[in-house]
Amino acid sequence: MITQVLIGILSGAAILTAGILIGHYGISQSSSGAPPSWLKDVAKDVDESLIEKFLSEVDNIQIQENLRELTKVPHMATTAGDEQTVQFMLKRWQDPETGLDQAWREEYMVYLSFPDPKNPNKVTVVSPSDTVLHTAREKEKSYTPDQDDPEVVQPYAAYSPAGHAKGKLVYANQGKPSDYQLLNQTIDLRGTVAITRYGGAGRAAKAINAAPYGVLGVLVYTDPLDINDGLMSDIDETYPHSWYLPPSGVERGSFNTHYGDLLTPYLAAKEETYRIPAENITGIPHIPIQPIGFEDAYTLICELGEEAAPAAWQGAFNCTYNFGGPGFKSTSYFNNSDVKLDIFNHEEVKNSSNVMGVIRGSVEPDRYVIYGNHRDSWVHGAIDPSSGTSVMLELTRVLGSLVQQGKWRPRRSMIFGSWGAEEFGLIGSAEYTEQYFAKLSERTVAYVNVDIAVFGKWLHLRMTKNPLVGYLSGAGSDYAAFVHYLGITSMDISYTYDRTKTNARIYPAYHTAYDTFDYASRFIDPGFVSHQAIARTAGNVLIRLADSLVLPLNCSDYAEILEDYLGTAMTLYEHQLRARNISMEPLKRAVASFRSAAAHLDRVIRTSDLANETPLKVRRINDQLMLLDRAFLDPLAFPDKHAYRHVIWASSDAGKPTFPGLADAFATAESSGQSRHWDKVHYHLSVLSQAIEGAAHTLLITKL
């Protein structure tokens, strides 16, 4: 039996060897004596002249007109306006002269939250006899016809539960856990309504953090200090006179902490997919929450009683921000009155579409470079997201023209995604990654995201001209599912302002009815030259990822990041961990091992004449580079964080520039002092050490 097996193995080896030799000499000796026609294509590198041609053909006026078309009507997810943009994308990508090889729509049945247009949400101040003393504005003030469009959705908090909350008002700063903890030391929060400002904590967290203290409802507003550099008057200071937010402007948003469809976690939300019961959804508020404008917030906050809040809690209003008694001052017109929230939101499962397009690769069609942005907006969405969509349409126009004219075809396939329902929690992109999990995990080289293409007008804000590189450690846009869930190398590109010159945490019209073509063309990017710069930059990146013989990904840069993270972790944690007999040595060795392996692969790439090497060697190196981020995935590392599996880039609540799981575990352990929490710190050290060591081994060939 053993003899038969050995003979079989040896015979198989002989046949394989003979096949390789025949194949080798067959390839080398064609009938004409010349190398086969495909060999030149296989060895071809990125064509710099093609990139120059692409850069020269990107047209700022085309981008401007794209934006004008995309912002004609509000296009919130699943509305008639959204379908209008779906048809517009399909028409452009199916154009026989400038379109892609193929374009289609992918549909999902997703769980969304809407206000009731016939029964608007209300925020009122009511006296003990239920007399209404003040009503918050239900609709933003009109300055242009855009705000009068009947499809402008009332400001609301998506996924806030319907309900009625009434209680004495308190001011809770940004609604962070520490804010409620401090406030609760002064005031009994049971039965109160809290008013919070945007920033510091996620939208949903402002209500989720409040509920354990007995708070019944939450208001949230944008303080002029955080968005307008303190300016407040629409007579001459805010839009329509400048880019600043008018007093009635309200930031809408999705008030959930998870991304993807909430009823189908880890499953694509197709019509017949299993759905969990709605009552089992996690990561959404269980008490009503409603956003309001700062003009109404001013009316409420400046009437609050009790002692003054800390200096760090003060904002731009010309009054002292007090905690609240709870409630209003005894001298106030609102004395002894309650704040009441009447929320009539409802949830629906609705059909949402991604629009997909592809340019097929000529040499490695099974390797994908994906470029995407979401299509849906809260209202007209000129900057978020249509600035990015306008750029994508111009980029695909130029590339599509080259393909249709037969002048170019990328080495690797380019996939373009116009994602649906992003504003409700990155739903379209997340469902796409869940549906095509295996294929994308095995074949995707990189994902490029361009959402808000341009954040501000650099002439007024002295925009930095040097690129600022940060880390995709949160879930701010559609890169989240690609990097955190699939471990795909990702990039998010935007043209932003110098944030040292303004307090604006984002462009001021964000998620309001003022994010219009008028706003974008007058105050964000007159002439659309910054949009043009982003289209050129993103297209340059896309072409190089698709056409370079060796992928332009540098694993030594990764080693530098790991070393920076390690240095911070040692400074912050090593002393206390050593006192508890928890060693950081395995983590140090792992990072050193990764540095050595990265340097080795860099040397191989640098010293090899890869254009004249066997294509298998090039493919092998590219696969090592492509799959590196996958090596950092651990599906068990973050059980409380939906779809976060990347141990280097996961989100963190600790706010430290180091390994997220370790930072969060250490913060919890230091706060509680409990041994089980210190055990969790040790666990995350082990997770990190083994993930980094494993990633280092993927950069080596023979070591097992």
TrEMBL record:
Residues 582-699 form the Transferrin receptor-like dimerisation domain. One of its GO terms (cellular component) is apical plasma membrane. Residues 354-454 form the Peptidase M28 domain. GO terms for molecular function: aminopeptidase activity; carboxypeptidase activity; metal ion binding; metallopeptidase activity. It is found in: Apical cell membrane. Its main location: membrane. It is a single-pass type II membrane protein. Pfam families: PA, Peptidase_M28, TFR_dimer. Keywords: Aminopeptidase, Calcium, Cell membrane, Disulfide bond, Glycoprotein, Hydrolase, Membrane, Metal-binding, Metalloprotease, Protease, Signal-anchor, Transmembrane, Transmembrane helix, Zinc. GO terms for biological process: proteolysis. Its cofactor is Zn(2+). Homodimer. Belongs to the peptidase M28 family. M28B subfamily. Aminopeptidase with broad substrate specificity. Has lower activity with substrates that have Asp or Glu in the P2' position, or Pro in the P3' position. Lacks activity with substrates that have both Pro in the P3' position and Asp or Glu in the P2' position. Lacks carboxypeptidase activity. Lacks dipeptidyl-peptidase IV type activity. This is Aminopeptidase NAALADL1. It comes from Scophthalmus maximus. The lineage of its organism: Eukaryota, Metazoa, Chordata, Craniata, Vertebrata.
